[in-house]
Amino acid sequence: MLLLSETWFNEIIKDAELSFDGQFQVFRCDRPSRGGGVCILARKYLKMIRVDIETSGEYIVVDLFANCSCLRILCAYVSNSGLSDIRLERTKSICEVIQTITCIDKPLVVIGDFNLPKIDWQAPYFPEGVSSESLFFNTCQECNLFQLVTEPTHRAGGILDLLLVSNPELISKICISCPPVASDHFAISFNIHCEDDIPLQPTCLNYKQIDEEAVALHLNLIDWPLFFSSCEDVNEMFYRFNDCCVFLLNMFTPLVQPVNAASKVLQYINRLKLSLEKRPHNDYLLSKKLKNATLRYRRLIESNLNLKDSRTFYKYVNSRIKGHTPVGALQVNSAPCVSPIDKASALASHFASVFVAEPCSPENILPREAFSVSFPDQDADLSEQSVYKILVQLKSSTNFTPDHVPTIFYKKFALFLAEPLSLIFQRSYSDGLVPNLFRQSIVTPIHKKGPKCLVSNYRPIAQGSIACKVMEKLLVQHLTNYLSKNNLLDLHQHGFVPNRSTCTQLLVMTQDWATFINNSESFHCVYFDQKSAFDKISQELLLRKLRSVGISERTISWYKSYLSERTFQVKVEDCLSKPCSAPTGVPQGSCLSPLLYTIFILDIANYIPAGVRYLIYADDLKIYCPIVSENSHKLLQTAVDGVSRWCLHNGMLLSPSKCVVLKHGFDTLEYMLNGQLLPSETITRDLGIFISPSLDFSFHICHTIKSAAIMLGTIFRCFTTRNPSVYICLYKCLTLAKFLYCSHENLI
Fold first, then answer.
1. Cβ-contact 435, 424 below 8 angstroms
2. Using an 8 Å Cβ cutoff, are 469 and 591 in contact?
3. Could you give the CA distance from residue 528 to residue 620 in angstroms, rounded to a whole number?
4. Residue ranges in the chain modelled with pLDDT below 70
5. What strand order describes the sheet that includes 2-5?
6. Exposure pattern of 188-213 as b/e (b: 16+ CB <10 Å)?
7. What confidence tens digit (pLDDT) does each residue in 293-302 have?
8. Exposure of 587 by Cβ count < 10 A (0-12 exposed, 13-18 middle, 19+ buried)?
9. Which of 540, 289, 617, 329 is nearest to 454 (CA)?
10. End-to-end alpha-carbon separation of the chain, Å?
11. What is the pTM (predicted TM-score) of this model?
12. Contact at 8 Å (CB) between 1 and 191?
C-alpha cells in the first residue's frame, strides 16, 4: 500500500495512470486549486472501503478488512501556508476527523504530512494559549495515539510526517529513506501486522499456443451427422458439441507461463529497493539509480510492443490510459461485502432488480394493425457457408464464456466447426427451441462513476455463448434484409441501421434547425431519457410486434424460446454468483437486441402528432418543431404527452429529471412530463456533440481542444518509449479522432 500526501493531482490525471496497470485500487482527495491533495494506492486484493466524513480537509479514511478484523487508516495533509489563524483552523479540522473516526473496536493508523515540526514528541512542552501544536498533541493523547517516527522526515530537518497508531504492536520495521521521486520529504516505510490471505494467481490456458494440428486432426475425423444422430433435441446436440470442444481445449492447450522480457531489470530494481531500506536516508545516489532503473524497465516493456498486433497493442494502451478498476469492498445496507462471492451476489441482486416488469396498458392485449408487406418472410439462411463466413470474421479474443469455449477457438477452427454449428442452428430454428447454454451469460461489473463501494455505480457487461453470437449474426442479416425489402425500417431511426450513424442523425437535425433559423422561426427541442430501455421490454409485447410486421411463425417461435428463461451470473475475480433470472428485456450485449428494439419502437410514430419531427438513435429520442404561436407550443406538449403515453402502454419508464428542453426563442414557455416540469438548458450533449439551439459550436470546439490536449499530456505521461511510430499511432487513435468525430471521419 502506498500513502501519498501533497500529491498535486487534479482532474487531468486519471485513476488509470496511478493504478500501475490495474494492480492497485486508487483512493484520492484532490485539492480543487493548485497543490495539496492526498492519495492511497492499495493492492487490488486488499479489501478496502472508503469512509465518508463530512468534515472538510485534505484527507482520506479507509477501512481495511482482513479475515474477521478491521483496521481503519487515515492519510492526511495539513498545509502550513497562510496566517496562524488559518493554520489553526486546518489543525482543528483534522483533529475533529481523528476524534470522529476513533473507534474502540477498530485499531487506527494515522499517517501524513501535518507540518508540526515544533512538537517534541519525546518531551512535549507548549507555552500557554491555544496553538496548532498543543491542539494536535492533546487530540492524540485523548484518542490514545502513539507517534512512532523519531527521525527527521524533511531535508531541512524536523519531523513533519507522522505515523500515529492506537496499538504500536501493529507496526514494525519503520524505515526513513530517500524516495525514488523528486521530493523534499523522505519516505516512511513500515509493516502493518494484519493477517490476510493473498489470492493465488489462477491457472489459465494459453489459447494462442494451442496445438492446432492435433485439434484439426481430431475435428476432421468426426462424422457430425452420425455424431448427432442419437440426440433427442437441439439442447442435447449442443451439449455434446460443446463437451467435445472443451475436451480438445483442455487436451491440447498449454497453461500460461509468465514471461517477462525485462526480468533482469526487475531483479535489479528489487535489489536496489532492499539496499535503499538498509542505507541512511540521505543516500540520494541510490534513490536516483532506482528511479532510472524503473524508467528503463518501462521502456523495455514498451519496446516489445508490436504495432501490427493491434489487439495486444491497444490492450496495453487501455491498461495505461483507461485501466481496469477491480471491484473493491462494497457496502450494502450499511454492511460491508468483502469476499468475492459476497460481492458477486450483491451485484447480481442489484442487476436483477432492473428486470422487474412494468405493467402494460390493457390496450396492448388487443391485436395491433399489421404493417403492409410486399415480400413474405422466408426461412433464415443457416447454411454451412454462411456460418463459415461469420466464424472467420470473429475477433481472436479469449473472454470467459458460459460454455468455456472462447472466440479464438471458433475462429482458428472455423473450417471444421462450420458444419456442426450449421446442423445445430438449423435444428434449433426448425424446432423453435434454443439450447440452454444460449440463454446464459456471464456478467462483468464495470465501474461507471461515483463511490466504488456502491453497487448502483456499476454497470453490467454480459458475455454469452460465442456459438449463440454466430447464430444471432445470421438472424440479424435475415431480419435486416426482410425489413429493408419491405421498407419497414423507420426513416427516423439512425441507430444500428445500415448506412446510418450518429453523424447522419446530427446532419438531419442541424439541417432542420438551420432552416428554422434562416426563416427567422423559433423552435423547441425535447430530449427524452429512458430508464434501462433494453431491460424493460415486455417480451410478450415484442413477439406481438414481430408478428405485426409479418415475421413468420417459425421465426417467432425461435425468438420466443430465445427470450424466455434467460439467466445470468455475475463474475467477481474467480467467483460466480448464483444464476439470476432476466424475465424482461432483450439480452444485453447481443447484436440482435438493438434490431429487436428498433422493431419494438416502430409504432411510436402513431403517438407523435403531425407537424412535430422526431429522431431516434437506438433508445435516444428527441422531438422538435417550430414555435410560432401558442398552438405550436400546445402541439409540442401534445407530442411530449404522446411519448409518455407510448411508454405507459409499452411498460417503459422515462426519467423527467434527465430529460432536457432546448429553446430558440419563446424561452418562457415550459413543458410538463407526468406532472413534472422539464428542465431547460442552453447547451446539451447530443450523441457526443455539445450543441446549442443557435448552432453555436464554440463550447464544443473549446471542450474538444481541451480534451485533446489532456489526452496528449496523458500519452506523454503514460508512455516512455523512444519509438516515434508508437506516438504517431497513439496520436491518431486517441487525439486526432476527437477532432475528426462527425466531421471528416473518412480521413482516419
1. yes
2. yes
3. 7
4. 104, 195-203, 257-264, 276-283, 356-370, 744-748
5. 2-5, 38-43, 24-29
6. bebeeebeeeeeeeeeebebeebeee
7. 888 888 887 8
8. buried
9. 329
10. 42
11. 0.83
12. no
> What 3-state class would DSSP assign to 474?
helix
526: β partners: 623, 661
User: Among 383, 403, 402, which Cα is nearest to 391's?
Assistant: 383
C-alpha cell at 748: 482516419
SS (H, E, C) 377-421: CCCCCCCHHHHHHHHHCCCCCCCCCCCCCCHHHHHHCHHHHHHHH
Helix 310-321 to helix 698-718 angle, to the nearest 10 degrees? 100
DSSP per-residue letters across 272-299: HHHHHHHS-TT-HHHHHHHHHHHHHHHH
Asked whether the beta carbons of 69 and 194 are under 8 A apart, the reply is yes
CA distances from 502 to 143, 452, 575, 602 (A): 59, 31, 38, 19
38 vs 19: CA distance, rounded Å: 15
DSSP letter, residue 115: -
Q: Among positive and negative, which fits the CA dihedral 435, 438, 440, 442?
A: positive
Cβ partners under 8 Å of residue 587, min gap 6: 441, 462, 464, 563, 566, 593
Identify whether the C-beta of residue 543 lies closer than 8 Å to the C-beta of residue 559. yes
What's the CA gap between 706 and 700, in Å, rounded? 10
Instruction: Dump pLDDT digits (tens) for 531-580.
Output: 888 888 999 999 999 999 999 999 999 999 999 999 999 999 889 999 99
User: Residue 732 has which C-alpha cell?
Assistant: 491518431
Cell of 330: 462494497
Say how far apart CA 399 and CA 410 lie, in whole Å: 12
Which residue reads 484439426 in cell numbers? 216
Amino acid making up residue 505: Q
